[in-house]
Design brief:
about 80 residues; 2 helices
């Protein structure tokens, strides 16, 4: 359950930060408010994907380490 909170927090933070940043710089940015939302959503999606892949790799590495440590069949016993 912790991972879903992490992903939602990352997505919300990315969207909010991007949207607020674009709103503050609206005098210097040549596009409209609808584009602010679109770019913020794309950025939030990218960051959420990155967080998800990192969490998945971390979980997979932990699972493989635990599997290797607690497996009945060891690499040394296969050669017999």
């Amino acid at each position: 359950m912790y991972w879903i909170i992490t992903i939602i927090t990352a997505s919300f933070s990315a969207f909010s930060g991007s949207f607020i940043g674009q709103s503050l710089l609206k005098k210097h940015i040549p596009y409209g408010k609808n584009t602010y939302i679109l770019l913020s959503a794309i950025l939030a999606t990218g960051i959420s994907y990155h967080v998800t892949t990192q969490r998945t790799k971390s979980c997979q590495a932990a699972w493989m380490a635990a599997e290797d440590k607690h497996t009945y069949f060891k690499h040394g016993s296969e050669s017999e």
